[in-house]
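Hi Prof. W.,

I finally got the YabP/YqfC family sporulation protein prediction working! I wasn't sure whether to trim anything, so I left the full sequence exactly as given:
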Amino acid sequence: MSFFDDIRRCVAGGSKYGYYIVLFGGEAAYIGGVTRIAEISGERIVLLSEKRVLTLCGEELGVDGIERGGAIVRGKIKRIEEGE
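And this is what came out:
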């Protein structure tokens, strides 16, 4: 269990979409609820949750850490798109 899972439970009570994002000034993000990383490039990272597809777009992106159910993305995050 991660620190962010504890915060999510206290603040949001869980997410109906199966994921949550904690942004750090547009330069990093922690995404919880990740079930799979579908694509990684310097401009685009595609993550899958139970119910949604998340696409992080930007520059110099990379996955800096992966833990059970979560990922840390670093780089210049310019946009986050959500799809089914």
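Residues 56 and 80 are 5 Å apart (CA to CA). Does that look reasonable to you?

Thanks,
D.
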